[in-house]
Amino acid sequence: MPTPRSAEPALHGKTGVVLCWDIDGTLLTTARAGIGAWEQALLETLGKTLGLGALPTAGLTDVEIGRLLIERLGAGSEPTLLGSLLARYEALLPLRLHDRKGKVLPGVWEFLEWNREHDRVPCILLTGNTRAGAAAKLRHYGLSGFFSDGAFASLEDPDRVAVARKAVGIASGLQGEGFVPERMVVIGDTPHDVNCGRAVGARTLAVATGTYGVAELDAAGAWRTLEAIPEPQAFLRFLK
Question: pTM of the entire structure?
Answer without folding.
Answer: 0.91
